[in-house]
Amino acid sequence: MSTQTTQPAETTDPTQQPRAHSAPEALQQRAKAQRTRDRIQTTGLFVIFFLGFIGIWHLATTGLDDGGLAPTPGATWERLLEMLGTAFLLDGPNNVGIFYHLLASIQRVLLGFGLAALIAVPLGLLLGTSRVIHDGMDPFIQILRPVSPLAWLPLGLALLRDSQMTAIFVIFMAALWPILVSTIDGVRRVNPLFLDLARSLETDTKTRVFKVLLPATLPAIVTGLRTALSTAWLVIVAAEMIVGGRGMGHFVWNEWNALNTPSIVVAIVIIGGVGFLLDRSIAQLQRLVPKS
Question: Where is this region: Disordered (predicted)?
């Protein structure tokens, strides 16, 4: 009787060899598949919500279009196509396309926002590091900060005597306080040990500010910038309704005077879309901030 035992044959096929990195690859594949499913579900829900919104909009305005005041979906779509077709029209100072109104608003917001950032960030660093100066200026900040930016508009017209500069001034006042308060708060949250260590190394003030204080405060500054830019974009429409000239606010007010409500709906969509893009731009900047 034979006692020979059968030994398992060695596998020579390379596809049968175990691979050490198969588990991470499988996890990556599952994660990628899950992200794809999430995107499909998100897109599907967006389409459903959008169609539902259009349906409710249509039902709410059905039968109310007799006087032209009800902005029905169909009339709004036709007006959107007309506005896109004449977006770059430039026929004199008063007959311009929607692109130039949008460009004027963006320019005012960026100028006012930029000036506010240039002043608020250094001032916030100073007030955050000096308790004496902060306590001396804090009553002014607390009184002026809650004031609506539009309340500064008559004063701007009286002092600057220029509608364009007044609109920029109003944006400046709207953006100044969020950046300033957020920067002060960011400085206060910096670990004192970092500054003490820098002083023990006998670093000068410039090095402490640019190498220690500013990087540690950057997340709070970016948060303030994001809030300030959103606020500035909210305020510009109301300010332009008053100061006139080109701009989305002026466009909306003119269309209301002409009782052209579909144009107002199109303008609202454009204003919201641009505001979303501005917010996303600052959000991308926030991603560049190193995590503490």
Answer: 1-35
Q: Which superfamily is assigned to 79-88+95-288 in CATH?
A: MetI-like (1.10.3720.10)
Q: How far is CA 242 from CA 97, 110, 171, in A?
A: 20, 19, 14
Q: In this structure, which amino acid lies at residue 151?
A: A
pLDDT tens, residue by residue, 198-234:
777 777 777 888 888 888 888 899 899 999 999 999 9
pLDDT one-digit tens code per residue, 246-276: 899 999 999 888 888 889 999 999 999 999 9
Rounded Cα distance, 21 and 6, in Å? 32
In order of 1, 8, 44, 61, 74, the CA distances from 55 in angstroms are 86, 69, 17, 10, 11
Alpha-carbon span 223 to 66, nearest angstrom = 47
Alpha-carbon span 187 to 126, nearest angstrom: 9
All structural domains of the chain with their residue ranges: 79-88+95-288
Q: Which residue from 23, 54, 29, 45 is spatially nearest to 265, judged by alpha carbons?
A: 54
Question: How far, in whole angstroms, is CA 187 from its chain's centroid?
Answer: 23
